[in-house]
Amino acid sequence: MPWFILKADTISEEQIKAAARQLVVEARARIAPSLKRVLLLPPDLTRAHSGAGKVTEWIYREIMAIEPHAHVRVIPTLGQHVPHTEAENKWMFGSIPNEIIVPHDWCRGISHVGEIPASLVKQTTGGIANWPIPVDLNSALMDESWDLIVNVGHVVPHEVLGFANHNKNYFIGLGGKQTICASHIAAAVYGIENNLGCLMTPLRACFNFAEDTLLRHLPDVYFQIVMQRDSENRLVTSGIFCRRRSGDLPSGGASLPSTERLGLRKAREEDHRRHAGR
To answer: In this structure, are residues 42 and 53 in contact, taking their beta carbons and an 8 Å threshold?
Structure first.
């Protein structure tokens, strides 16, 4: 369910700051009144143009203003990308101390969480891929106790998941080698051309299922940024979505959801109509 949504032709920096402040207010009311241990999960430098680094800094400042002695950690969701240098951290995250910005280690810094069953991968891909996807995620995310986890991200078209962000932050950005490789090859054999720009892809359906069954206990929230070109061809923020969970996720349990319940079939039909109209 969305906590709040802000949409306009251009959203100003002051409005974005106010949205970051509202996120903290809502999180204290909805998740944890005391924010003593907070994990911030921004994108890496490849999404720097979205201003997600500044948003992360503003959220950090809001938390420290309320809880001056809070234990805050920032883990850029690198996936397999190269970790930032100290100079890059300062350029992207401003006043956030470098010592609390921790690089994700996709080979040695992970914990095994579970598995996306081969039967679900086969179901969502129409039988094209038929292997399980192991779910190995960042150890600090899974093994430490957090009062609040904030995913900050930029929604853009993506060749593997249709669109970047949301739970891609977890399963790719903070994923281990086996998770990243098994999921990417499943998306590749399904067809990049069938994924790019689609709202619901087979891999997104698998990740939604994994989030709902394996990560339901996490005290997390998504702060998502959408951008567009204005009349002067400048890249501007045009949308901010703050939400806890997708409203149409399956309710969990041992049984696998149907394609209809995952929303995959309806989303595919809508995407096909949209592409046909171009």
So the answer is: yes
DSSP category for residue 201: -
How far is the C-alpha of 180 from the C-alpha of 166, rounded, in Å? Answer: 16
**Tokens 């996306």 correspond to what residue?**
116
pLDDT tens, position by position, 171-181: 999 999 999 99
SS3 193: helix
How long is the chain?
Answer: 278
List the CATH number of the domain containing 15.
3.40.50.11440
Please count the other Cβ atoms lying within 10 Å of the Cβ belonging to residue 238: 17
Give kind and range of the element (H or E) at residue 272: helix 264-276
C-alpha span between 239 and 226 (Å, rounded): 5
Helix (H) or strand (E) holding 226: strand 220-229
| 253: confidence class by pLDDT, cuts 50, 70, 90 | very low
* Distance, CA of 206 to CA of 183 (rounded, Å): 9
Band the pLDDT of 275: cuts 50, 70, 90.
low
At residue 173, the pLDDT reads 94
Continuous segment of H or E residues that includes residue 268: helix 264-276
Other Cβ atoms less than 10 A from the Cβ of 253: the count is 9
The residue range of the domain holding 136 is 2-276
Question: pLDDT digit string (tens) for 42-71?
Answer: 998 888 888 899 999 999 999 999 999 999
**Residue 158, both tokens:** 């993506």
Beta-carbon neighbour count of residue 45 at 10 Å?
17
Give the number of domains in the chain: 1
pTM greater than 0.85 (yes/no)? yes
Measure the CA angle with vertex 145, ends 140 and 151; round to 5°. Answer: 65
